[in-house]
Design a protein that fits this description.
The protein is mainly α. Helices cover 50% and strands 0% of the residues. The longest helix is centred in the C-terminal third of the chain and has 16 residues, at 94-109. The protein starts with a helix and ends with a helix. 12% of the residues are buried.
């Protein structure tokens, strides 16, 4: 978990991308920008004093991989598959186009 926190940027973390994250970031040296930095350098008391008791405790726990928030069911329909694709810029290869057209027409008329 420590390695993950050392690689996770504060501003990329849910609820730390805005004002709260900026306030926490201001408590750290300029070159420290990860959740691991928070857990290594900022004790609970400093966080609670700077951002409040509740928020301070949440940040303190979150930087250590602790989250007490309940898992909420998804209200929308889940996708049946995950689509991944790579898009390429349009390039014209006459031989490839000829082969592709023959192949697809062959599949359709077979």
């Amino acid at each position: 978990m420590t390695k993950l926190m050392e690689e996770t940027q504060i501003k990329k973390t849910r609820l730390l991308g805005g004002k709260l994250g900026k306030k926490v970031q201001s408590l750290l040296p300029d070159f420290e920008t990860t959740l691991g930095s928070i857990s290594r350098l900022l004790p609970l008391g400093v966080l609670e004093k700077a951002i409040g008791e509740e928020s301070g405790r949440w940040v303190f726990d979150a930087c250590r991989g602790i989250d007490f928030e309940e898992v909420r069911p998804t209200l929308k329909v889940l996708p049946k598959s995950i689509t991944a694709f790579k898009s390429f810029s349009k390039v014209s290869y006459p031989e490839l186009e000829k082969w592709t057209v023959r192949y697809f027409f062959g599949c359709i008329w077979a």
